[in-house]
Design brief:
mainly alpha; Leucine-rich Repeat Variant; two-stranded antiparallel sheet; 18 helices; elongated
């Protein structure tokens, strides 16, 4: 059995002016009582790269939140070499570890986009969700790949892509999302309508008005919400027509939208809705009237 080499023969890294530390000592230094030494150790571990990768991934699971945070700082400095391990960490049982791995991957920017897009196809729902979250945090560099993902054959990929595009809010996604409002899957149609509302571009108004005529309330209602967020008064007539629906959920969604748009033309039908048989609809009508008149 080989003898352990003395410290003088190991590769050392300077943390402060009085000397150096080997890799294991640097990991231990993350627990040092001196915050400056802990911080410096984290920065150096990030610069070391691959040799420090697995110890830092383990540190993400530490019970001490400060250790998790410092390990995250170190990993975020490594670049592409850390991506496979961070992707594995996104499947950990511990929610905090999954969350930190997601945030770190987002900090890598465009170099993390392709692997994250690939994760949208994973069977595990939570992994797809964290991947979409990371892509939404990356922003601009993820827009074009997410637009392509709107055409993926798997509906759950299209759903997460639409959600992420809505969070990013880039107007380049408006036309592709308008097309997705006509997707064969209702959940994709829902997600696309919701995303268009978040982006708030009036080019989506006509498409969303058409979606109000969908037979599925789980498409009509997000379309109404989206119209409320966009605020285009040309949608007021169509939303007022939705108040004739026998489905309370659709009536409620339309009233919410009319209140946000704030057009006084809706006051008469909203006052009639004060007599609606459903409590939620009556309450929404009262709030919408107050908002319009305020």
């Amino acid at each position: 059995m080989k003898d352990t080499p003395p410290l003088s023969e190991k590769k050392t890294y300077s943390v402060h002016s009085t000397g150096g530390m080997d890799l294991q000592s640097l990991i231990a230094a993350l627990r040092h009582t001196n915050l400056g030494i802990r911080w410096r150790a984290a920065l150096i571990l990030g610069e070391i790269g691959e040799p420090a990768l697995k110890p830092l991934i383990r540190a993400l699971k530490d019970e001490d939140k400060d250790i998790q945070w410092l390990a995250g700082i170190a990993l975020s400095r490594m670049g592409t070499v850390a991506i496979p391990e961070l992707i594995r960490a996104m499947s950990e049982k511990d929610y905090d570890v999954r969350w930190r791995a997601t945030i770190i991957l987002a900090k890598f920017g465009d170099i993390a986009v392709d692997p994250l897009i690939g994760l949208l196809k994973e069977k595990e729902s939570d992994l797809r969700w964290h991947s979409a979250l990371a892509l939404s945090l990356i922003g601009g560099p993820a827009v074009e790949p997410l637009i392509l993902a709107l055409k993926d054959r798997d509906w759950f990929v299209r759903v997460r892509a639409a959600w992420a595009l809505g969070e990013i809010g880039d107007e380049k996604a408006v036309e592709p999302l308008i097309q997705s409002v006509n997707d064969q899957d209702w959940y994709v149609r829902w997600s696309a309508a919701d995303a268009l509302g978040k982006i708030g571009d009036r080019k989506a108004t006509r498409c969303l008005i058409a979606a109000l005529k969908e037979p599925d309330s789980f498409v009509q209602v997000p379309a109404a919400w989206a119209l409320g967020k966009i605020g285009d008064k040309t949608s007021v007539g169509a939303l007022m027509q939705s108040l004739k629906s026998p489905d309370w959920y659709i009536r409620w969604g339309a009233i919410e939208a009319l209140g946000k748009i704030g057009d006084k033309r809706a006051l008469e039908v909203l006052e009639m809705a004060l007599e609606d048989k459903d409590d939620y609809v009556r309450t929404a009508a009262e709030e919408a009237i107050n908002r319009i008149l305020s």
